[in-house]
Amino acid sequence: MFTYAIYPRRHKRSLSLPRALQLVRGSDQYANGIVECLNRNGTRKQFAPYWTLDSLFEFNLSPSDFFIVLDGDCAVGCLACWDQNAFKQTIVRGYSGAMARWRKFINLASRLGIAPYLPEPNTQLSYCYASHTAVDDDNPVVFSALLRALYNEVATRHYDYFIIGLAESNPFGRIVKSYHPLTYTSQIYLTGWDDCLQAIAQVDARPPAIEIAVL
């Protein structure tokens, strides 16, 4: 599992979609379509959460936090910009070694877009999640447009980073890497009591779709 932290340096050009598709900002009228898109795509993968209107739109997440690609009235892709600072924060307590010595120079370089920004010690890291990724047929054009729209939103709101988690086998990893993220690698383990072993044995070759924003 790869966790990518992307520093939004500056606005980028919006990406176009085929004429039949339209990228819109989420609203209450699209709430059901978002849930359907997430669950429809979740069934193609392993460990994806199952969502309802009640379980999805809570903990400071609303339809307006989503970017959606529509084919007519059907949502064929979605991606959320989820700010969890109201209930979960990361505080930078300090830096050590070379990072402490060179932090000010690194932050000068960050203004040129060639290094990540390192906040002051004892301050809150301002970040959000790019979460609830769902794209029909894993269409790279649709995902690229969604990610670019979210990137520009994060840049406008002046977050230090946004974070997205993808499994190693996820085809969107190549697109995310083009944003030059900081990358953290972790392993997925399956464990359980004896009565869970049969369920574990049924895990197949579908790619994992763990939502790191709810961990």
Mean of the pLDDT scores? Answer: 94
What fraction of the residues are assigned to beta strands by DSSP?
Answer: 15-25%
> What do we call the CATH homologous superfamily?
Gcn5-related N-acetyltransferase (GNAT)
Radius of gyration: 18 Å
Strand order in space, largest sheet: 2-3-4-7-8-1-9
Oligomer: single chain
How many helices? The count is 6
Low-confidence segments, given as residue ranges, are: none
Domain tally: 1
* Helix percentage: 25-40%
The CATH class is identified as Alpha Beta
SS-based structural class? alpha+beta
Corresponding CATH architecture: 3-Layer(aba) Sandwich
Strand-helix topology:
Layout (H helix, E strand, L loop, with lengths): L1 E5 L14 E5 L5 H12 L10 H4 L9 E6 L2 E9 L8 E2 L4 H14 L12 E2 L2 E9 L4 H17 L4 E6 L6 H5 L4 E4 L11 H5 L14
Parallel strand pairs: 7-8
Antiparallel strand pairs: 1-8, 1-9, 2-3, 3-4, 4-7, 5-6
